[in-house]
């Protein structure tokens, strides 16, 4: 099924076939719909789409071997700086797993001529997309900066490439070791979070470069000594082992002298020859079972296959999409929609430099026999391998891939990544063209042949069943690598002073235009012609807050059904039409708004709007589909009760808003088992009629086409839509928000290596208020990487991978939420540290001059990069409408921010943030955590995860 997934990050931040099997659900949809079937929608040929993809580039190599690629894109005054090192976790020797990723963290600790936090210095430049990542084959670092800040960014990047080690001491190593181990705990703590380790160990033999996970083992991270990690830098971080891509407001003539100036003096180092890695074949099928604290049994099938440069890479990727990647996939149609023995299916190819992994997973529907579902899965896969896909299926995959590639190229950093990846793995920045051509020309016979070559070999068959986890391998209390050992003194090299940042121009936001359809629907539009893409959002004043107290979850379940069948297209036909167009039609909700969205290449805008209109206006609500979605929703609720983030997001709202408030329900919008079980078709139809209607709608659109060309197409799709006779829905926020006092609600989740602290209170402000000063103050206190709370718990104590506190922007009363995943044995101390940081900032030590300067510079200089894409522009139009802001809100942000003073920021925060009223939800192992919490002197209530 196409699950309406809520990402954990968003959840915690927003409190804002050869044989198409049509099962009983689809058959009943058709029965409800009647005999009229909508004709296929015309789509632009995939070859035409491929011809639109072009990233011009130039390349030169410095005398020290550094490869530089330049792509010119003048759409915005920003430049992406992307640095890729030819080293990843597959290059780690035995006993050093996790070192590549650990060193990525060390690269952010400052360098010899720019000591202190790299992120702190970069924040002053106003970057967007600032981060670093490590994977099996590479380590990369990237930031998009305003053009006047480019030279300083190049100075900082070159300083950590050539002059780092003087700043890497034992204290820095020990701190980042702790941070990385908490990152590992955070991933391991998720449902199914231990599967990757078992998969890699089963697929790859001892000594194989891809046998261990990039995050590494606790024991190896414990053993990382100062000299060992310094040698990792010496052996792998030379300029002749790196690629730098400059993409954006720059050309080669400008780039050459800058790169010579800042990188040319760095001496060559060793060249890493990527570890060779054969594609292993298991001697016989491996069948295993793992137990985890999960709600659903998950069946997995995995094979090691060739890497991304193989002639079989694209055919195998197409095979995975047809089997379980498309919304119209074989497994969706047969196991989810047809036989209804599974609630979710996926199939994907993860392709790396030397090898790839072909994965299948099936989440078994509660009450079904997992062994029987497994036998059925194997039969479907065997039939697919034998018969292969149809031409039409292959064409849909190709169109979807090419359309997605076009949409990904809006950001200059996205284009930088494409060029760097091609250069690193294939020696050719244009490698993406070869991939596009292969997708456009691949045949069913090639797909079938590739599957028969690789997927008929012995399989790794693992079942992850509900149950108690095995004992967790924790880090040592005193890591051996933390023992100080004399290390050679680093000879520092003095450089010319760091260049200053030039004058950064204010944001040029596109003009906002308006139109009105013949039925009164308002249209809000902006033109962005960077790529031939159009994005549309039909937005309704609804959201999860629109649910009646006795129908919690109705909005979400109704939305699930919109794209599961209309009066002229069943769920599979809707999915196939999307794929044929290379379009994405999605429906979603926040607490305040419900939306149906379309993202499409503009060549397919007209048929895309037809599809969007059909989904919004004509849902079938077929009885069989309702029952299938009900079962999936109930399964999803059970899964929420195993996920730390979802557990917290369900628990906190009623504790701070009170159950009478439309915001006093789960931020997931999923309701509870009783209401989902009781919802009738009439309830869902009534929910749709009350909220998804033309007199409750606004259309937001960003396109490369002018408004005069877009409006007639919107009129054709929505202009004749009439409101139903039923009354329009209303939301009642009249109930008073109860006063809260500080207390702890501990939700017992046994065997959790990490605790999630999720606390806060409702502020006496609304999203429609002017919160510029409050949010600027909170950058120092809670929301920024360099905030007081993250600097303390992550960058000083090393107890967390990341801590944030945010005023989460809802339309009405705004909650302030602290989100702090911390290692289990530091839970109590972490809450005490959080309280101390809030008290200190709000009582005595407010914003310092340095923090004020960093916040103002960062918030203003980052504006151009923050509104670089059509999706970002569309989001701005929608948020302006939600919060009652003027059209020029983004244009005035820079001048208004520069006028802020430290006194204004302190006053804004101190007036509304009162930590003595924070309710702290803690999701963790009560046997470990409760004794720690008892030392805090706060009232404690212990709950099970099932409450």
Q: What keywords describe this structure?
A:
single chain; 947 residues; alpha+beta; six-stranded mixed beta sheet; 18% strand; disordered N terminus
Work out the helix count.
35
N- to C-terminal distance? 27 Å
Give a short account of the largest sheet.
6 strands, mixed
> What general form does the structure show?
globular
Strand order of the largest sheet: 1-2-8-3-7-6
Bin the helical content.
Answer: 40-55%
- How much of the sequence is in beta strands? 15-25%
Structural class: alpha+beta
Secondary structure tally: strands: 25
User: Mean pLDDT, nearest integer?
Assistant: 94
Rg, rounded, reads: 27 Å
What is the structure about, briefly put?
The chain has about 950 residues and is an alpha+beta fold. Helix content is about 40%, strand content about 20%.
Q: What is the strand and helix layout of this fold?
A:
Blueprint: H1 8-13, H2 24-33, H3 46-51, E1 58-61, E2 67-72, E3 78-85, H4 99-106, E4 110-111, E5 114-115, H5 118-125, E6 128-134, E7 139-146, H6 150-162, H7 170-188, H8 195-203, H9 218-223, H10 226-236, E8 242-248, H11 252-263, E9 286-292, E10 298-306, H12 313-325, H13 330-338, E11 342-351, E12 355-364, H14 370-387, H15 391-408, H16 412-426, H17 431-441, H18 444-454, E13 460-466, E14 512-516, E15 522-527, E16 533-540, H19 554-562, H20 571-581, E17 584-589, E18 594-601, H21 605-617, H22 623-640, H23 644-657, H24 673-678, H25 681-691, E19 697-703, H26 707-718, E20 743-748, E21 754-766, H27 772-783, H28 788-796, E22 804-807, E23 813-823, H29 827-843, H30 849-861, H31 863-866, H32 870-882, H33 889-898, H34 902-912, E24 919-924, H35 926-933, E25 940-944
Parallel strand pairs: 2-8, 9-13, 15-19, 20-24, 20-25
Antiparallel strand pairs: 1-2, 3-7, 3-8, 4-5, 6-7, 10-12, 10-13, 11-12, 14-15, 16-18, 16-19, 17-18, 21-23, 21-24, 22-23
Helix pairs in contact: 2-22, 4-7, 5-30, 6-11, 12-15, 12-18, 13-14, 14-18, 15-20, 19-25, 20-21, 21-26, 27-30, 27-34, 28-29, 29-35, 30-33
């Amino acid at each position: 099924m196409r699950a309406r997934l809520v990402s954990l990050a968003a959840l915690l931040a927003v409190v804002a076939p050869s044989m198409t099997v049509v099962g009983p659900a689809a058959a009943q949809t058709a029965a409800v719909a009647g005999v009229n079937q909508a004709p296929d929608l015309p789509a632009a040929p995939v070859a035409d789409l491929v011809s639109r993809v072009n990233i011009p580039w130039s390349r030169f190599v410095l005398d020290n071997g550094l490869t530089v690629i330049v792509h010119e894109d003048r759409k915005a005054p920003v430049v992406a700086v992307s640095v890729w090192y030819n080293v990843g976790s597959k290059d780690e020797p035995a006993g050093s797993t996790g070192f590549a990723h650990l060193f990525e963290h060390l690269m952010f600790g400052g360098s010899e001529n720019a000591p202190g936090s790299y992120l702190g210095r970069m924040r002053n430049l106003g970057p967007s997309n600032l981060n670093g990542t490590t994977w099996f084959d590479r380590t990369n670092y990237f930031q998009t900066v305003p053009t006047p800040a480019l030279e300083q960014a190049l100075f900082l990047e070159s300083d950590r490439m050539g002059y780092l080690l003087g700043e890497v001491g034992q204290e820095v190593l020990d701190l980042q070791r702790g941070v990385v181990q908490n990152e590992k705990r955070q991933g391991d703590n998720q449902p199914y979070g231990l599967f990757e380790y078992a998969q890699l160990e089963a697929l790859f033999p001892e000594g194989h470069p891809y046998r261990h996970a990039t995050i590494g083992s606790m024991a190896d991270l414990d053993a990382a000594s100062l000299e060992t990690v310094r040698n990792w830098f010496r052996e792998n971080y030379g300029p002749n082992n790196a690629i730098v891509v400059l993409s954006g407001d720059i050309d080669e003539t400008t780039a050459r002298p800058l790169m010579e100036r800042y990188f040319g003096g760095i001496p060559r180092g060793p060249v890493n020859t990527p570890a060779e890695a054969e594609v292993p074949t298991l001697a016989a099928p491996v069948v295993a079972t793992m137990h985890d604290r999960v709600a659903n049994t998950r069946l997995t099938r995995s094979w090691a296959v060739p890497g991304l440069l193989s002639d079989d890479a694209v055919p195998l990727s197409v095979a995975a999409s047809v089997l379980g990647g498309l919304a119209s996939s074989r497994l969706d149609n047969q196991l989810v929609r047809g036989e209804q023995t599974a609630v979710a299916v996926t199939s994907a190819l993860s392709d790396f430099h030397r090898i790839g992994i072909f994965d299948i997973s099936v989440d078994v529907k509660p009450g079904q026999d997992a062994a029987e579902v497994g036998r059925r899965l194997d039969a479907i896969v065997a039939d697919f391998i034998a018969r292969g896909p149809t031409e039409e299926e292959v064409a849909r995959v190709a169109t979807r891939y090419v359309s997605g590639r076009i949409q990904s190229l809006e950001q200059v950093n996205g284009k930088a990544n494409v060029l760097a990846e091609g250069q690193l793995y294939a020696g050719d920045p244009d490698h993406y063209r070869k991939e596009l051509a292969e997708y456009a020309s691949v045949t069913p016979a090639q797909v079938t042949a590739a599957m028969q070559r690789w997927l008929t070999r012995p399989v790794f068959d693992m079942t992850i069943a509900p149950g108690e986890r095995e004992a967790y391998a924790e880090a040592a209390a005193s890591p051996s690598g933390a023992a100080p050992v004399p290390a050679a003194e680093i000879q520092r090299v003095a450089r010319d002073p760091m260049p200053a940042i030039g004058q950064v121009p204010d944001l040029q936001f596109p003009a906002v235009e308006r139109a009105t359809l013949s039925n009164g629907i308002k249209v809000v539009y902006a033109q962005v012609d960077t790529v031939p893409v159009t994005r549309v959002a039909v937005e309704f004043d609804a959201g999860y807050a629109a649910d009646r107290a006795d129908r919690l979850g109705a909005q979400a379940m109704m939305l699930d059904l919109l794209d599961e069948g209309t009066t002229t297209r069943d769920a599979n036909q809707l999915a196939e039409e999307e794929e044929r167009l290379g379009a994405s039609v999605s429906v979603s909700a926040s607490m305040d708004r419900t939306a149906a969205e379309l993202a499409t290449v503009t060549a397919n805008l007209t048929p895309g709007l037809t599809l969007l209109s059909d989904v919004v206006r004509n849902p079938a609500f077929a009885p069989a589909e309702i029952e299938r979605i009900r079962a999936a929703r109930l399964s999803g609720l059970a899964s929420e009760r195993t996920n730390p983030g979802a557990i917290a997001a369900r628990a906190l709202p009623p504790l701070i808003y009170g159950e009478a408030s439309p915001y006093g329900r789960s931020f997931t919008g999923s309701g509870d088992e009783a209401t989902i079980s009781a919802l009738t078709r009439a309830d869902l139809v009534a929910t749709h009629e009350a909220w998804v209607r033309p007199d409750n709608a606004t259309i937001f659109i960003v396109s490369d086409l002018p408004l005069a060309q877009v409006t007639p197409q919107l009129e054709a799709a929505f202009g004749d839509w009439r409101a139903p006779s039923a009354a329009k829905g209303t939301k009642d926020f009249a109930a008073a928000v109860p006063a809260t006092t500080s207390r702890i609600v501990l939700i017992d989740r046994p065997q959790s290596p990490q605790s999630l602290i999720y606390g806060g209170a409702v502020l006496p402000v609304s999203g429609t208020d002017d919160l510029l000063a409050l949010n600027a103050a909170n950058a120092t206190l809670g929301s920024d990487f360099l905030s007081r709370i993250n600097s303390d718990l992550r960058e000083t104590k090393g107890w967390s991978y990341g801590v944030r506190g945010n005023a989460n922007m809802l339309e009405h009363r705004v909650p302030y939420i602290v989100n702090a995943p911390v290692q289990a044995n530091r839970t109590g101390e972490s809450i005490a540290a959080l309280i101390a940081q809030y008290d200190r900032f709000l009582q005595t030590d407010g914003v310092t001059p340095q923090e004020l300067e960093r916040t103002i510079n960062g918030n203003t200089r980052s504006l151009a990069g923050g509104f670089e894409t059509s999706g970002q522009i569309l989001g701005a139009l929608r948020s302006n409408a939600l919060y009652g802001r003027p059209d020029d809100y983004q244009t005035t942000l820079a001048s208004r921010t520069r006028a802020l003073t430290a006194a204004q920021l302190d006053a804004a925060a101190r007036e509304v943030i009162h930590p003595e009223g924070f309710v702290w939800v803690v999701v963790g192992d009560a046997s470990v955590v409760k004794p720690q919490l008892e030392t805090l002197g706060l009232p404690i209530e212990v709950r099970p995860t099932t409450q």
